[in-house]
Here is the input.
Amino acid sequence: MRASQKDFENAMNQVKLLKKDPGNEVKLKLYALYKQATEGPCNMPKPGMLDFINKAKWDAWNAIGSLPKETARKNYVDLVSSLSPSSESSGRVDKEPGSESVVITSEDGITKIMLNRPAQKNAITIQMYQEILSALEATSKDDNSVITVLTGNGDYYSSGNDLTNFTNLPPGGIEEVAKTGSILLRDFVDCFIDFPKPLIAVVNGPAVGIAVTLLGLFDAVYASDRATFHTPFTQLGQTAEGCSSYTFPKIMGPAKAIEMLIFGKKLTAHEACAQGLVTEVFPDSTFQKEVWARLKAYAKLPPNAMRISKELIRHNEKEKLHAVNAEESTALQGRWLSEECMNAIINFLSRKSKL
Ligand SMILES: CCCCC/C=C/CC(=O)SCCNC(=O)CCNC(=O)[C@H](O)C(C)(C)COP(=O)(O)OP(=O)(O)OC[C@H]1O[C@@H](n2cnc3c(N)ncnc32)[C@H](O)[C@@H]1OP(=O)(O)O
Here is the structure.
Protein backbone atom coordinates (compact mmCIF):
# COMPACT_ATOMS: atom_id res chain seq x y z
CA MET A 1 0.00 0.00 0.00
CA ARG A 2 1.21 3.53 -0.84
CA ALA A 3 1.68 6.19 1.83
CA SER A 4 -0.04 9.51 1.02
CA GLN A 5 1.50 12.93 1.63
CA LYS A 6 -0.93 13.28 4.54
CA ASP A 7 0.32 9.95 6.07
CA PHE A 8 3.87 11.24 5.67
CA GLU A 9 3.08 14.54 7.42
CA ASN A 10 1.28 12.71 10.27
CA ALA A 11 4.30 10.48 10.69
CA MET A 12 6.59 13.53 10.89
CA ASN A 13 4.39 14.96 13.67
CA GLN A 14 4.35 11.62 15.50
CA VAL A 15 8.15 11.54 15.58
CA LYS A 16 8.14 14.83 17.52
CA LEU A 17 5.79 13.30 20.11
CA LEU A 18 7.76 10.13 20.81
CA LYS A 19 8.30 9.88 24.57
CA LYS A 20 11.17 7.46 24.33
CA ASP A 21 14.36 8.32 22.45
CA PRO A 22 14.44 5.70 19.64
CA GLY A 23 18.27 5.72 19.65
CA ASN A 24 20.81 7.03 17.17
CA GLU A 25 20.58 4.18 14.69
CA VAL A 26 16.81 4.64 14.22
CA LYS A 27 17.14 8.44 14.15
CA LEU A 28 19.68 8.15 11.34
CA LYS A 29 17.35 5.82 9.41
CA LEU A 30 14.49 8.30 9.85
CA TYR A 31 16.69 11.15 8.68
CA ALA A 32 17.85 9.23 5.62
CA LEU A 33 14.32 8.16 4.62
CA TYR A 34 13.00 11.69 5.15
CA LYS A 35 15.70 13.20 2.92
CA GLN A 36 15.18 10.53 0.26
CA ALA A 37 11.41 11.02 0.35
CA THR A 38 11.67 14.80 0.01
CA GLU A 39 14.82 15.35 -2.09
CA GLY A 40 15.65 12.03 -3.71
CA PRO A 41 19.15 10.46 -3.74
CA CYS A 42 21.89 12.07 -1.63
CA ASN A 43 23.00 15.28 -3.36
CA MET A 44 25.33 16.81 -0.75
CA PRO A 45 29.13 16.86 -0.69
CA LYS A 46 30.55 14.38 1.83
CA PRO A 47 31.31 16.17 5.16
CA GLY A 48 34.83 15.99 6.66
CA MET A 49 35.81 13.08 8.89
CA LEU A 50 35.73 15.21 12.06
CA ASP A 51 32.25 16.52 11.36
CA PHE A 52 30.92 13.41 13.14
CA ILE A 53 27.20 14.11 13.14
CA ASN A 54 26.86 15.40 9.57
CA LYS A 55 29.07 12.61 8.29
CA ALA A 56 26.86 10.00 10.00
CA LYS A 57 23.77 11.62 8.45
CA TRP A 58 25.41 11.78 5.03
CA ASP A 59 26.46 8.10 5.25
CA ALA A 60 22.92 7.04 6.20
CA TRP A 61 21.32 9.01 3.34
CA ASN A 62 23.92 7.99 0.80
CA ALA A 63 23.49 4.32 1.76
CA ILE A 64 19.88 4.36 0.51
CA GLY A 65 21.16 4.86 -3.04
CA SER A 66 18.46 5.38 -5.64
CA LEU A 67 15.45 4.18 -3.64
CA PRO A 68 12.38 5.87 -5.23
CA LYS A 69 10.90 8.83 -3.30
CA GLU A 70 7.57 7.02 -3.02
CA THR A 71 9.11 3.93 -1.40
CA ALA A 72 11.20 6.06 0.99
CA ARG A 73 8.01 7.86 2.06
CA LYS A 74 6.25 4.54 2.73
CA ASN A 75 9.27 3.13 4.62
CA TYR A 76 9.39 6.30 6.73
CA VAL A 77 5.69 6.01 7.65
CA ASP A 78 6.09 2.28 8.47
CA LEU A 79 9.16 2.91 10.61
CA VAL A 80 7.42 5.68 12.58
CA SER A 81 4.33 3.55 13.15
CA SER A 82 6.53 0.71 14.46
CA LEU A 83 7.90 3.16 17.04
CA SER A 84 4.55 4.62 18.00
CA PRO A 85 2.21 2.35 19.97
CA SER A 86 -1.14 4.07 20.47
CA SER A 87 -0.15 5.12 23.99
CA GLU A 88 2.79 7.02 22.52
CA SER A 89 0.72 9.15 20.18
CA SER A 90 -1.62 10.69 22.75
CA GLY A 91 0.06 14.05 22.18
CA ARG A 92 1.45 14.39 25.71
CA VAL A 93 5.11 15.39 25.82
CA ASP A 94 5.52 15.82 29.58
CA LYS A 95 8.82 14.70 31.03
CA GLU A 96 8.35 11.64 33.20
CA PRO A 97 9.10 12.37 36.84
CA GLY A 98 12.71 11.53 37.67
CA SER A 99 13.74 11.69 34.00
CA GLU A 100 16.23 14.51 34.68
CA SER A 101 19.88 13.58 34.10
CA VAL A 102 20.87 15.08 37.44
CA VAL A 103 18.41 14.75 40.33
CA ILE A 104 18.92 17.04 43.31
CA THR A 105 17.11 16.34 46.58
CA SER A 106 17.46 17.68 50.13
CA GLU A 107 16.48 15.84 53.30
CA ASP A 108 17.70 15.77 56.90
CA GLY A 109 20.44 18.34 56.17
CA ILE A 110 21.82 16.26 53.28
CA THR A 111 21.83 17.54 49.70
CA LYS A 112 22.00 14.59 47.33
CA ILE A 113 23.19 15.17 43.76
CA MET A 114 22.40 12.00 41.84
CA LEU A 115 23.63 11.29 38.31
CA ASN A 116 20.60 9.82 36.60
CA ARG A 117 21.42 8.36 33.18
CA PRO A 118 21.61 4.72 34.20
CA ALA A 119 21.19 3.44 30.62
CA GLN A 120 24.33 5.40 29.64
CA LYS A 121 26.16 4.38 32.84
CA ASN A 122 25.71 7.96 34.11
CA ALA A 123 28.07 9.41 31.50
CA ILE A 124 28.30 13.16 32.14
CA THR A 125 27.01 15.47 29.40
CA ILE A 126 27.86 19.18 29.07
CA GLN A 127 24.46 20.04 30.53
CA MET A 128 25.11 17.76 33.51
CA TYR A 129 28.45 19.45 34.27
CA GLN A 130 26.58 22.76 34.30
CA GLU A 131 23.78 21.41 36.49
CA ILE A 132 26.18 19.88 39.03
CA LEU A 133 28.16 23.13 39.15
CA SER A 134 24.99 25.17 39.77
CA ALA A 135 23.82 22.70 42.42
CA LEU A 136 27.15 22.93 44.27
CA GLU A 137 27.05 26.74 44.13
CA ALA A 138 23.49 26.79 45.48
CA THR A 139 24.05 24.24 48.23
CA SER A 140 27.24 25.95 49.42
CA LYS A 141 25.05 28.96 50.29
CA ASP A 142 22.08 27.01 51.66
CA ASP A 143 22.03 27.16 55.48
CA ASN A 144 19.79 24.09 55.66
CA SER A 145 22.31 21.97 53.79
CA VAL A 146 24.98 20.50 56.08
CA ILE A 147 26.64 17.88 53.91
CA THR A 148 26.53 17.26 50.18
CA VAL A 149 26.62 13.88 48.49
CA LEU A 150 27.36 12.91 44.90
CA THR A 151 26.13 9.47 43.81
CA GLY A 152 24.83 7.57 40.79
CA ASN A 153 21.54 5.87 39.95
CA GLY A 154 21.69 2.29 38.64
CA ASP A 155 24.63 -0.07 38.40
CA TYR A 156 27.32 2.57 37.70
CA TYR A 157 28.53 5.52 39.73
CA SER A 158 29.57 7.16 36.46
CA SER A 159 31.38 6.26 33.24
CA GLY A 160 32.94 9.74 33.24
CA ASN A 161 32.83 12.27 30.46
CA ASP A 162 30.15 11.52 27.86
CA LEU A 163 32.26 10.84 24.79
CA THR A 164 29.57 12.25 22.53
CA ASN A 165 30.30 15.68 24.09
CA PHE A 166 32.95 15.94 21.37
CA THR A 167 30.73 15.08 18.42
CA ASN A 168 28.18 17.87 18.26
CA LEU A 169 30.29 20.38 16.41
CA PRO A 170 29.35 24.10 16.58
CA PRO A 171 30.26 26.48 13.72
CA GLY A 172 33.74 26.98 15.27
CA GLY A 173 34.38 23.24 14.83
CA ILE A 174 36.41 20.98 17.08
CA GLU A 175 38.66 23.90 18.16
CA GLU A 176 35.64 25.64 19.68
CA VAL A 177 34.51 22.44 21.41
CA ALA A 178 38.00 22.00 22.89
CA LYS A 179 38.16 25.63 24.05
CA THR A 180 34.72 25.76 25.66
CA GLY A 181 35.22 22.25 27.11
CA SER A 182 38.48 23.34 28.73
CA ILE A 183 36.85 26.43 30.28
CA LEU A 184 33.90 24.40 31.57
CA LEU A 185 36.20 21.72 32.98
CA ARG A 186 38.25 24.34 34.81
CA ASP A 187 35.15 26.05 36.30
CA PHE A 188 33.66 22.68 37.24
CA VAL A 189 36.75 21.43 39.08
CA ASP A 190 37.35 24.86 40.71
CA CYS A 191 33.92 24.52 42.27
CA PHE A 192 34.94 21.23 43.94
CA ILE A 193 38.21 22.76 45.16
CA ASP A 194 36.37 25.66 46.79
CA PHE A 195 33.36 23.77 48.13
CA PRO A 196 33.16 24.86 51.79
CA LYS A 197 31.16 22.06 53.44
CA PRO A 198 31.74 18.30 53.82
CA LEU A 199 31.50 16.70 50.38
CA ILE A 200 30.91 12.96 50.26
CA ALA A 201 31.00 10.52 47.33
CA VAL A 202 28.69 7.53 47.62
CA VAL A 203 30.24 5.32 44.94
CA ASN A 204 27.50 2.81 44.21
CA GLY A 205 29.29 1.05 41.33
CA PRO A 206 32.12 1.38 38.79
CA ALA A 207 33.62 4.82 38.24
CA VAL A 208 35.57 5.94 35.17
CA GLY A 209 37.60 9.02 34.20
CA ILE A 210 36.62 12.30 35.79
CA ALA A 211 34.26 10.45 38.17
CA VAL A 212 37.40 8.88 39.68
CA THR A 213 39.82 11.79 39.58
CA LEU A 214 37.45 14.16 41.39
CA LEU A 215 37.41 11.79 44.36
CA GLY A 216 40.74 13.27 45.46
CA LEU A 217 38.84 16.50 46.19
CA PHE A 218 36.09 14.86 48.31
CA ASP A 219 36.16 14.74 52.11
CA ALA A 220 34.99 11.13 52.33
CA VAL A 221 34.51 8.41 49.71
CA TYR A 222 32.28 5.46 50.58
CA ALA A 223 32.26 2.64 48.05
CA SER A 224 30.25 -0.49 47.39
CA ASP A 225 32.47 -3.55 46.99
CA ARG A 226 31.12 -3.68 43.40
CA ALA A 227 32.79 -0.37 42.58
CA THR A 228 35.92 -0.16 40.45
CA PHE A 229 38.13 2.85 39.71
CA HIS A 230 39.43 3.30 36.20
CA THR A 231 41.20 6.23 34.52
CA PRO A 232 41.94 5.11 30.94
CA PHE A 233 43.29 8.52 29.90
CA THR A 234 46.23 7.30 27.83
CA GLN A 235 44.02 4.77 26.03
CA LEU A 236 41.78 7.73 25.09
CA GLY A 237 44.72 9.90 24.00
CA GLN A 238 43.92 12.17 26.95
CA THR A 239 45.60 13.26 30.17
CA ALA A 240 44.73 13.50 33.86
CA GLU A 241 42.21 16.04 35.14
CA GLY A 242 40.28 16.83 38.33
CA CYS A 243 43.64 17.78 39.96
CA SER A 244 44.55 14.07 40.02
CA SER A 245 48.04 14.75 38.63
CA TYR A 246 48.63 16.35 42.05
CA THR A 247 46.17 14.66 44.45
CA PHE A 248 46.76 11.03 43.37
CA PRO A 249 50.56 11.00 43.88
CA LYS A 250 49.94 12.71 47.24
CA ILE A 251 47.28 10.22 48.28
CA MET A 252 48.84 6.96 47.06
CA GLY A 253 52.43 7.82 46.17
CA PRO A 254 53.75 8.40 42.62
CA ALA A 255 54.30 4.73 41.78
CA LYS A 256 50.68 3.73 42.30
CA ALA A 257 49.33 7.00 40.87
CA ILE A 258 51.30 6.50 37.68
CA GLU A 259 49.93 3.00 37.21
CA MET A 260 46.42 4.47 37.31
CA LEU A 261 46.87 7.77 35.51
CA ILE A 262 49.38 6.81 32.82
CA PHE A 263 48.88 3.08 32.32
CA GLY A 264 45.14 2.99 33.08
CA LYS A 265 45.26 0.27 35.75
CA LYS A 266 41.76 -0.38 37.11
CA LEU A 267 41.49 -0.71 40.92
CA THR A 268 38.92 -2.71 42.86
CA ALA A 269 37.17 -0.95 45.74
CA HIS A 270 39.38 -2.73 48.28
CA GLU A 271 42.54 -1.77 46.37
CA ALA A 272 41.38 1.87 46.15
CA CYS A 273 40.73 1.80 49.90
CA ALA A 274 44.19 0.35 50.59
CA GLN A 275 45.67 3.19 48.46
CA GLY A 276 43.80 5.84 50.45
CA LEU A 277 41.50 7.00 47.63
CA VAL A 278 38.44 5.41 49.29
CA THR A 279 37.52 5.95 52.94
CA GLU A 280 35.61 2.70 53.50
CA VAL A 281 34.19 -0.19 51.48
CA PHE A 282 30.81 -1.78 52.25
CA PRO A 283 29.21 -5.01 50.98
CA ASP A 284 26.93 -4.10 48.09
CA SER A 285 23.96 -5.80 49.79
CA THR A 286 24.03 -3.39 52.76
CA PHE A 287 25.80 -0.45 51.11
CA GLN A 288 22.91 2.03 50.79
CA LYS A 289 21.47 1.25 54.22
CA GLU A 290 24.76 1.53 56.10
CA VAL A 291 26.07 4.59 54.29
CA TRP A 292 22.89 6.66 54.50
CA ALA A 293 22.46 5.84 58.20
CA ARG A 294 25.99 7.10 58.79
CA LEU A 295 25.48 10.23 56.69
CA LYS A 296 22.27 11.09 58.54
CA ALA A 297 24.19 10.95 61.81
CA TYR A 298 27.02 13.13 60.40
CA ALA A 299 24.51 15.69 59.16
CA LYS A 300 23.40 16.25 62.77
CA LEU A 301 26.91 17.34 63.84
CA PRO A 302 27.47 21.09 64.35
CA PRO A 303 27.76 22.47 60.80
CA ASN A 304 30.01 25.44 61.56
CA ALA A 305 32.58 23.30 63.37
CA MET A 306 32.70 20.96 60.34
CA ARG A 307 33.03 23.86 57.90
CA ILE A 308 35.86 25.50 59.87
CA SER A 309 37.71 22.18 60.26
CA LYS A 310 37.44 21.61 56.51
CA GLU A 311 38.83 25.07 55.84
CA LEU A 312 41.76 24.41 58.23
CA ILE A 313 42.54 21.09 56.55
CA ARG A 314 42.16 22.31 52.97
CA HIS A 315 43.04 25.99 52.72
CA ASN A 316 46.83 25.62 52.40
CA GLU A 317 46.34 23.52 49.27
CA LYS A 318 43.76 25.62 47.47
CA GLU A 319 46.10 27.88 45.53
CA LYS A 320 48.14 24.91 44.36
CA LEU A 321 45.00 22.99 43.36
CA HIS A 322 43.68 25.90 41.28
CA ALA A 323 47.02 26.15 39.48
CA VAL A 324 47.07 22.39 38.81
CA ASN A 325 43.48 22.53 37.55
CA ALA A 326 44.36 25.34 35.13
CA GLU A 327 47.36 23.39 33.80
CA GLU A 328 45.42 20.15 33.39
CA SER A 329 42.53 21.91 31.61
CA THR A 330 44.94 23.58 29.17
CA ALA A 331 46.73 20.28 28.50
CA LEU A 332 43.40 18.58 27.77
CA GLN A 333 42.35 21.33 25.36
CA GLY A 334 45.37 20.36 23.27
CA ARG A 335 44.76 16.63 23.69
CA TRP A 336 41.15 16.89 22.45
CA LEU A 337 42.51 18.22 19.14
CA SER A 338 45.06 15.42 18.79
CA GLU A 339 44.80 12.52 16.39
CA GLU A 340 45.33 10.07 19.27
CA CYS A 341 42.26 11.37 21.05
CA MET A 342 40.08 11.68 17.92
CA ASN A 343 40.87 8.10 16.92
CA ALA A 344 40.04 6.78 20.40
CA ILE A 345 36.69 8.57 20.44
CA ILE A 346 35.86 7.48 16.90
CA ASN A 347 36.67 3.88 17.90
CA PHE A 348 34.37 4.01 20.93
CA LEU A 349 31.52 5.65 19.05
CA SER A 350 31.79 3.33 16.04
CA ARG A 351 31.76 0.31 18.37
CA LYS A 352 28.57 1.70 19.86
CA SER A 353 27.04 2.56 16.43
CA LYS A 354 27.01 6.25 17.39
CA LEU A 355 28.48 7.35 14.08
C1 LIG B 1 33.44 19.68 29.70
C2 LIG B 1 34.24 18.51 29.28
C3 LIG B 1 34.98 17.93 30.45
C4 LIG B 1 35.74 16.72 30.06
C5 LIG B 1 36.40 16.08 31.21
C6 LIG B 1 37.17 14.91 30.77
C7 LIG B 1 37.04 13.76 31.37
C8 LIG B 1 37.81 12.57 30.94
C9 LIG B 1 37.07 11.31 31.18
O1 LIG B 1 36.11 11.20 31.91
S1 LIG B 1 37.70 10.01 30.32
C10 LIG B 1 36.56 8.71 30.57
C11 LIG B 1 35.54 8.66 29.50
N1 LIG B 1 34.76 7.47 29.67
C12 LIG B 1 35.04 6.31 29.05
O2 LIG B 1 35.98 6.18 28.31
C13 LIG B 1 34.07 5.18 29.27
C14 LIG B 1 33.44 4.76 27.97
N2 LIG B 1 32.50 3.69 28.21
C15 LIG B 1 32.88 2.40 28.30
O3 LIG B 1 34.03 2.06 28.22
C16 LIG B 1 31.79 1.40 28.52
O4 LIG B 1 30.58 1.94 28.07
C17 LIG B 1 31.64 1.00 30.03
C18 LIG B 1 32.88 0.19 30.45
C19 LIG B 1 31.50 2.22 30.91
C20 LIG B 1 30.39 0.10 30.21
O5 LIG B 1 30.48 -0.99 29.32
P1 LIG B 1 29.21 -1.97 29.14
O6 LIG B 1 29.59 -2.93 28.07
O7 LIG B 1 28.79 -2.49 30.45
O8 LIG B 1 28.04 -1.03 28.68
P2 LIG B 1 27.91 -0.27 27.28
O9 LIG B 1 29.26 0.06 26.74
O10 LIG B 1 26.99 -1.03 26.40
O11 LIG B 1 27.25 1.10 27.74
C21 LIG B 1 25.82 1.27 27.84
C22 LIG B 1 25.45 2.53 27.09
O12 LIG B 1 26.08 3.64 27.71
C23 LIG B 1 26.84 4.38 26.75
N3 LIG B 1 28.03 4.94 27.42
C24 LIG B 1 28.69 4.41 28.44
N4 LIG B 1 29.69 5.22 28.80
C25 LIG B 1 29.68 6.27 27.97
C26 LIG B 1 30.47 7.45 27.84
N5 LIG B 1 31.46 7.71 28.68
N6 LIG B 1 30.16 8.31 26.88
C27 LIG B 1 29.12 8.10 26.05
N7 LIG B 1 28.31 6.99 26.11
C28 LIG B 1 28.59 6.11 27.08
C29 LIG B 1 27.24 3.34 25.72
O13 LIG B 1 27.54 3.98 24.52
C30 LIG B 1 25.97 2.51 25.65
O14 LIG B 1 25.04 3.24 24.88
P3 LIG B 1 24.09 2.50 23.81
O15 LIG B 1 23.27 1.55 24.62
O16 LIG B 1 23.30 3.60 23.19
O17 LIG B 1 25.03 1.81 22.87
User: Anything to note?
Assistant: The pocket of L24GHEU4 is lined by residues 120-121, 123, 126, 129, 159-165, 181, 184-185, 208-210, 232, 236, 238, 241, 348, 352 (CB under 6 Å). The chain has two domains: 5-83, 102-351.
